[in-house]
## 1
Amino acid sequence: MKRSSTPRSRRLGDRIMEALIYASGGVVIVTILAVVYYLTHESKYAYERKFDYGYRVALQPVSGQYEKDLSLDPYATLVTANKEGLDGLDEKEETVPMPTLEELSGGATFGTGTPLSGDLAKVDPSKLYRDDWRAQKPANVGQRFLVFGFATPEYKSDKMAIAWAPDASFNSELAPFDLHLRLVRAPSSVTVQPIDIDLKRQPEGRMELPSYVATSDEARTEGYVFALEATPTSSTAAAVSGGIFRSEWDPTGSYPKFGFVPLLMGTFLITLLAILFASPFAIATAVYLSESAPSRVREWVKPVIELLASVPTVVLGYFGLMLVAPFLQNTLAKAVGMDSGRALLTTSLIMAVLLIPTITSVAEDALRAVPQSMRDGGEALGLTLKERLRKIVLPAAKGGLTAAILLGMARAIGETMIVWILGGGAPLLPTFHGVKDTVGNLMKPVTAAPDTVAREMGNVDFQGVHYGHLFLLGLTLFVLTLVINIVGYRLGRRNAWQS
């Protein structure tokens, strides 16, 4: 009975173990699917984005003194659709009406204003304001702003100029609209050619016009009437998807920008440099432990390396902040103009320390997986240890070594705390205008995708557009790291000597 029960107990144990393995695999798959679903579901709020634009329009003298920066011109009219605007009248418009001739007397010779309506037939001359702040609209909804312009009796020239410029921080190239400034109506007393200015091709400029002088407040609306028209050019989904490929990330500005490029570029640069710093040391250590280290050394070194992998990343981050960053700043500040130790170079060095245990452990496993018979065959042919490594062991383990590097890359791509503490928090787009400029990129602050999500998630409106873009960025990171891990796993299972 005892003999027969042992095989049964073993079979039962094998079945339990097999069931646990399948259950673990199922849990992993369900977890991955759940994460993908949640990230995708929350990313949809990014596609509820409404888009903004803003221009300032003013009348000026053709020559002489005039304000070139329209944002400093107190009589320029701002027509804008942004997150601070509301359709209809609000305090921003109500408190600043269109200037009267008396208000302009002695201070300015031109005036502009807007009726808060895009339909000239519905304009109420008694309700004119200097600016028009409207709510944002989806990419498939256009808008039209009207701007009245006139000169005061103090202006004596027969020529004047209309000037236009984008509002501060607004880039017309980022708007999913065709933006045009058109002449809707000219004064009956002048003759002027039709005006239609493409604001994307000519975002700012001046154009001469025959002068129109308003002799009374009622005549202010009988002069020039211009229209800023925003015509849709794409769907909201296409506009949002195109926006994430832009090179600007500024989600809290007056005209928010959600370009992923600088964040992913920061992630790429940190990962690339960390891999370049860590891989030679890690693979050399793996080769030493696998091929030539005495067993006693291996028994001590391998646990120490694996213990290093368990050090919290926040500890590594503060180690870099307190020791490495000041050292680099003191030694490199004068040579390369490093303003702060919190920079790309510092972040990459500490990230390399984090990656060394991972790459070393996986690389050593790959090297030890090479059959001993291949080493013995090389030795029988008279090859030295160096020759066996170069001609037999390393080529045979190249799949596993590549997998080790890829797994290190995946680890670096998802790292948050080190970049948060040491990066400096500024998006970086590197420039390469010479050796000094290229090296100077290492000394600039940097931010990456993971730390951006962690830093900004606590300060966004729940289920808002910014919230949705952070989840979309998280989804991008998850897919990227998942693909790299899968490729690394497959390469790790591939044995070069069996292919």
## 2
Amino acid sequence: MPREFSRTERVAYQIQRELAALITKDTGDPRLRGLTVSDVRINSDLTEATVYITGTASTKTEEIMATLGRASGFFRKNLARRLRARGVPKLKFVYDHTFDQAAHLLALIDSAVVREE
């Protein structure tokens, strides 16, 4: 039997998909190229969304987070146009270090395997 998704999960998925399109296609800021929206989590009353962002190794994290924070009004306005919802949650952008940590662990494993040989 398929799993039922809650309203917050459905809205989070829609916001993730639309924000990814907005960031990659609709903003003219070259600093935002190469960013990925890895996850969106919304509180139960749908008023605040935490948006997890990942980037390339050369990404200047603080600068990118500041740029996204300043552009949150732009993103909310465009999300309101694209989503069929009464309101759009306040957006909080957080850099997601998960992929960086995974790459570091893989490098450690690779170096350990090379030493064993």
## 3
Amino acid sequence: MDLEGFLIENMNILFLIIGIIVGLTLIKLATKILFRLIILIILIIGLYIGYQQVFQKNIIDNLTNLYCKEKETKTAHCTCFIDPILRDLEKRFPDESLDQLKKNKLKCNTEFIKSYKTMETEIKNCLTENNKDNILKEILNEIKNKGLKILK
């Protein structure tokens, strides 16, 4: 049997071997690319969390300083928005836990959102009673403009 006859008879086996080699090469290439993408994504997430931990400010203290300064404690911003959220946070966390929460900025933002969602109806009712319905959008826009993009 000559080489040509051997190749013709075993063409399926040759195609299978070539297909396996090409497939393994493609898998190896895809794995390298996927591995690099995963490392890049992990790096981006790590940098974002690091940025938030180091550079972002504590939203609770930030908003309290912004809306509840000593002169302005009677504004609707403070009494209707900040006070209900602070009451809810103080009810859910003892003083020491609240101080620890303020140090962990990501968790602080999460708990602030939970308190906002819990007290949302009370906040809206208070604003309605004070004829300041439009203030809520103004507050939320101000939070977004200050770089505290945690509320939608």
